[in-house]
Amino acid sequence: MSGADDEGYVPLIDAAAIAPGRNKAFVIQGHEILVCNVDGGFYALHNRCSHAAERLEGGRIRGHCVVCPLHGARFDVRDGRAVTAPARTGIPTYPLRIVDGRVEVRVDPQSSPAST
Ligand code: FES
User: Fold this and answer.
1) Residue 51 CB less than 6 A away from ligand 1
2) Is residue 49 in contact with ligand 1, taking CB distance under 6 Å?
3) How many angstroms separate the CA atoms of 30 and 84, rounded?
4) Which numeric CATH code is attached to 9-106?
5) Domain coordinates of the chain in residue numbers?
6) How far apart are CA 23 and CA 102, in angstroms?
7) This model's pTM is above 0.85
8) Which residue from 20, 21, 39, 6 is spatially nearest to 106, judged by alpha carbons?
9) How far is CA 79 from CA 5, 14, 46, 66, in A?
10) Tens digits of residue pLDDT in 26-59
11) How many CB atoms lie within 10 A of CB 91?
12) Residue of minimum CA distance from atom 1 in ligand 1
């Protein structure tokens, strides 16, 4: 997916299409990104668990964490840090904004997709 504006943000989806407590995955410029709605607040983070690279899409939202569907590690959607084992390392997060009701995410062109 491309179509970034001058600031590098890529429009993805209507915010209303991701209900509170849900998430949805996208690929932007080679980055697998998960957009999470936590009580109406939106966050973007890498869509691969740092433990065994499972995709986090569809993982339950618990508090400010997304739960890995495979072994249950939790990651804080606000900063990507690993909150519970078996994950030991965090995952990248990405700048996100809402413009005219649409979710937009920016991928740092300096960074490369996290290896998994
Ligand atoms: S792959 Fe996510 S906790 Fe193991």
Assistant:
1) yes
2) yes
3) 27
4) 2.102.10.10
5) 9-106
6) 15
7) yes
8) 6
9) 24, 23, 11, 12
10) 999 899 999 999 999 999 999 999 999 999 999 9
11) 24
12) 52
